[in-house]
Amino acid sequence: MTTFGHELLHAAELLRRYEKAVLERRAAHPARMGSASELQLVDLVIQILEDMAPFGQELAKLVPVDAQVPGSLIEQLRLDQLRAVMSTAEKRDAPHSGGDIDVF
Questions:
Q1: Would you say 95 and 6 are in contact if contact means Cβ atoms under 8 Å apart?
Q2: Which domain of life does the UniProt lineage start with (predicted)?
């Protein structure tokens, strides 16, 4: 659960970078109608992830230390990096993707 919460924070960080890239693009180009409300939805997803991450990390304190996530459950994850992280207790320092985000 601790790793799960940590990964949710990484997902929020990636979305925050995306939101920043979109806002920078909007500053340079006129926005179409409705785009502000769509961007607010991205911010809502970020807030949900940022709420759920510490919730998962606190929930981990209630789970017995020797509890294991079944491998069959981890194998259902589509992303190789996520499967690797979720199958160990080690936390990664950086999210899945590095570098800048370009909006076309």
A1: no
A2: Bacteria
